[in-house]
């Protein structure tokens, strides 16, 4: 029995596959992925964007391969980046084979759309020869005509049936290294389809609400859809789809996982909305602080609260706490306990200093513990 059972999430048991050196499914951490929106043929721009996503914490990045020039470029991009790359293929089985040869870690392709069974065999062989996994990507907007006729409209049952049809093709080819997505732009449809798929198979699931919209509404829809699924233990890798910079997709993906305690990365700032009682400008402080702390990857919690109404209580649960006090005299908490006061000093500079020092301390402790464990083995 855990100390706080209301926070427990029981993850669906799935098989584990590899996307390059990143594990997806089973007990592997839930990964965050995104997709480049540069021209794949522009190698320099695509490499730069992948690196930006890596810096934001992306575990996996997908790149479109619409033509032969793109798969050629893929071969130049992959050696220059660290994260495993998923090649996004639609219909053209030759692009899939070229992408596997170019070093893609995973192919996003629907075997039912490739054409003849001979072509499917060739793609599966290329994947096996080059150690690629695959992702079956069912989308409510592009369901097979027969399924639409049978079910009348894109519905969860049609989406699950489509996924099972694609799954069967790969299984018939003795291929099991794949994950599946079942996306829709409608939150209800996406969630219901994933729930159905989670019951129907044990393959790892790539979850997402597709074409979710711009930064704000897309973040909200994704948080509701992915949040509901993750909370129910469904989902092994997430992609947030936004009409925005893909780096934002990575950040939102991480924030969703962080909010559910499923991944920890960087500083989790807890701050109040501020009101007439605030003893310093909370909104401006948090805005600047978040930017200044963006480089920290060590998991840590910092509370920034405008006054004593909620400040001490929130600080109790954080690594570093800050509460506004009267006469420009604020209280700083370390590990939940009052530590010192801050008077007439720059709040952001002071908090950044404290967080950086704490991050260095945590990292040093983690390294020392790893060394002790290695020595004990
Ligand atoms: S903590 Fe204080 S300043 Fe912040 S919203 Fe609550 S009452 Fe207002």
From TrEMBL:
Origin, by domain of life? Answer: Bacteria
- Segments forming domain IspG C-terminal: 268-356
Q: What class of enzyme is it?
A: oxidoreductase
| Coiled coil location | none
What are the BP-aspect GO terms?
isopentenyl diphosphate biosynthetic process, methylerythritol 4-phosphate pathway; terpenoid biosynthetic process
Enumerate the UniProt keywords alphabetically: 4Fe-4S, Iron, Iron-sulfur, Isoprene biosynthesis, Metal-binding, Oxidoreductase
Report the cofactors.
[4Fe-4S] cluster
Family matches, as Pfam families? GcpE (PF04551), GcpE_C (PF26540)
According to UniProt, this protein's pathway is: Isoprenoid biosynthesis; isopentenyl diphosphate biosynthesis via DXP pathway; isopentenyl diphosphate from 1-deoxy-D-xylulose 5-phosphate: step 5/6
Q: What is its EC number?
A: 1.17.7.3
Q: Which PANTHER family match?
A: 4-HYDROXY-3-METHYLBUT-2-EN-1-YL DIPHOSPHATE SYNTHASE, 4-HYDROXY-3-METHYLBUT-2-EN-1-YL DIPHOSPHATE SYNTHASE (FERREDOXIN), CHLOROPLASTIC
* Function noted in UniProt: Converts 2C-methyl-D-erythritol 2,4-cyclodiphosphate (ME-2,4cPP) into 1-hydroxy-2-methyl-2-(E)-butenyl 4-diphosphate.
Give the protein's recorded name.
4-hydroxy-3-methylbut-2-en-1-yl diphosphate synthase (flavodoxin)
The source organism is Denitrobaculum tricleocarpae
């Amino acid at each position: 029995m855990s100390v706080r059972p209301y926070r427990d999430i029981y993850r669906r048991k799935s098989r584990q596959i590899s996307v390059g050196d990143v594990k997806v499914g089973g007990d592997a951490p839930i990964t965050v992925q995104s997709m480049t929106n540069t021209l794949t043929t522009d190698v320099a721009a695509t490499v730069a964007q992948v690196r930006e996503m890596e810096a934001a914490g992306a575990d996996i990045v997908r790149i479109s391969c619409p033509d032969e020039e793109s798969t050629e470029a893929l071969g130049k991009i992959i050696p220059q980046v660290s994260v495993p790359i998923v090649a996004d293929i639609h219909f053209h089985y030759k692009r899939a084979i070229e992408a596997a040869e170019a070093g893609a870690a995973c192919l996003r392709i629907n075997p039912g759309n490739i054409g003849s069974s001979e072509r499917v065999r060739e793609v599966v062989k290329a994947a096996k020869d080059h150690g690629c996994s695959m992702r079956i990507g069912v989308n409510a907007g592009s369901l097979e005509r027969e399924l639409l006729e049978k079910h009348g409209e894109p519905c969860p049952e049609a989406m699950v049936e489509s996924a099972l049809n694609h799954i069967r093709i790969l299984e018939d080819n003795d291929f099991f290294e794949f994950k599946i997505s079942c996306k829709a732009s409608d939150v209800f449809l996406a969630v219901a389809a994933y729930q159905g798929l989670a019951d129907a198979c044990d393959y790892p699931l790539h979850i997402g609400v597709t074409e979710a919209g711009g930064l704000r509404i897309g973040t909200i829809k994704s948080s509701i859809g992915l949040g509901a699924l993750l909370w129910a233990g469904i989902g092994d890798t997430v992609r947030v789809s936004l009409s925005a910079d893909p780096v934002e997709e990575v950040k939102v993906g991480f924030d969703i996982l962080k909010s559910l305690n499923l991944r920890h990365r960087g500083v989790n700032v807890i701050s109040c909305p501020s009101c007439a009682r605030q003893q310093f400008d909370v909104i401006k402080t948090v805005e600047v602080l978040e930017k200044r702390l963006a480089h920290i990857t060590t998991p840590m919690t910092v509370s920034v609260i405008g006054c004593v109404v909620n400040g001490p209580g929130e600080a109790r649960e954080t690594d570093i706490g800050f509460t506004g006090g009267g006469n420009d005299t604020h209280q700083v908490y370390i590990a939940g306990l009052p530590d010192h006061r801050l008077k007439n000093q720059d709040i952001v500079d002071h908090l950044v200093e404290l967080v950086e020092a704490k991050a260095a301390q945590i990292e040093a402790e983690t390294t020392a513990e790893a060394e002790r464990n290695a020595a004990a083995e």
